[in-house]
């Protein structure tokens, strides 16, 4: 039976065993069926597995396909694609990447039917930095029952909502920059954030369903106070999806919508050259410290362009057998 090369990348960190682990499978020269990809993703049993595929459209440099362990294909420009691009650049598929931050290169990734820009550069420390454009923000359903929402998270209803930059942020709502429909929930403090519990999977599923956030998750966040607001304000967040087996250490497809949520609520006051920046720290409660950098820039469509940036580190590589084409995938977590 033939084999494929795979790589485990810790994403949104340059320190091994600190980032959000992603399995990247090199299928640049091999064609797999969707079922074979699902079987491999279930075998890795990480939050996501991404396959590097030749583009189906000349507008793209590479096409990426990403799967959860339960077989659901996802199309967000988050850790699943940022980690894949980190490997693409580090492996030499794109040639030499400039050593300075002023000479980055732009490529395009195909995620489903979307074609999104990817900028590659190196930091002053020589780290590969991946910056990805996300889709147009959409502000969808609002969750108005704070009592039931708080109960599902193991906190009090009065804990939902926070004050930042003289703005009261008390709306729990679905914001998206991709097909992933995550429910964003502001909470009063980091202390409250740490007390959130994701054990009530059934209850959280019901709350997500009430806002039509199926096959997605809940993103709870707070302002990371440090005595004074930095130039790039920092927020801390936690994410859980009933479709995953554990809390997600870093969720780029939710961090981008968080930046859009702050912009929509006039909470972004630090602007340089028309661009606002925030930092999102995630994964602390899972023992993994992941840092995501987001930029928000108004565009000509009366909306904003969201860019997420971060780095990665290789922690493992090896070979894996290609599943037989005769096997089927029954779904569900292993």
Automatic annotation (TrEMBL):
SUPFAM superfamilies per record: Diaminopimelate epimerase-like
A GO CC term attached to the entry: cytoplasm
GO molecular function, one term: isomerase activity
Pfam family, one: PhzC-PhzF
Active-site residue list: 48
Protein name as it appears in the record: Phenazine biosynthesis protein
Protein's organism: Penicillium coprophilum
Organism ancestry: Eukaryota, Fungi, Dikarya, Ascomycota, Pezizomycotina
């Amino acid at each position: 039976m033939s084999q494929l090369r795979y790589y485990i990348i810790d994403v949104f960190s340059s320190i091994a065993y600190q980032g959000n682990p992603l399995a990247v499978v090199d299928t640049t020269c091999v064609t797999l069926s969707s079922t074979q990809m699902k079987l491999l993703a279930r075998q890795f049993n990480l939050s996501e597995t991404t396959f590097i595929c030749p583009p189906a459209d000349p507008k793209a440099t590479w096409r990426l396909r990403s799967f959860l362990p339960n077989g659901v294909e996802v199309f967000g420009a988050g850790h699943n694609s940022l980690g894949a691009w980190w490997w693409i650049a580090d492996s030499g598929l794109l040639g030499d990447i400039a050593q300075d931050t002023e000479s980055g290169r732009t490529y395009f990734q195909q995620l489903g039917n979307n074609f999104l820009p990817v900028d590659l550069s190196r930091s002053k420390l020589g780290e590969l930095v991946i910056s990805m454009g996300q889709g147009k923000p959409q502000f969808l359903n609002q969750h108005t029952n704070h009592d039931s929402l708080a109960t599902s998270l193991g906190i009090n209803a009065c804990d939902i909502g926070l004050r930042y930059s003289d703005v009261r942020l008390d709306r729990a709502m679905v914001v998206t920059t991709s097909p992933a429909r995550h429910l964003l929930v502001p909470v009063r403090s980091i202390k409250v954030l740490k007390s959130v519990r994701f054990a009530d999977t059934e209850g959280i599923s019901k709350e997500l369903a009430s806002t039509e956030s199926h096959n997605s998750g809940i993103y709870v966040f707070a302002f990371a106070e440090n005595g004074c607001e930095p130039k790039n304000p920092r927020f801390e967040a936690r994410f859980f999806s009933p479709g995953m087996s554990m809390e997600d250490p870093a969720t780029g497809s939710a961090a981008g919508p968080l930046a859009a949520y702050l912009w929509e609520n006039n909470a972004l006051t630090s602007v340089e050259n028309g661009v606002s920046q925030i930092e999102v720290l995630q994964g602390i409660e899972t023992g993994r410290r992941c840092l995501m950098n987001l930029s928000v820039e108004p565009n000509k469509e009366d909306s904003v362009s969201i860019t997420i940036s971060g780095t990665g580190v290789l922690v493992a590589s090896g070979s894996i057998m290609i599943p037989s084409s005769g096997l089927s995938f029954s779904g569900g977590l292993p």
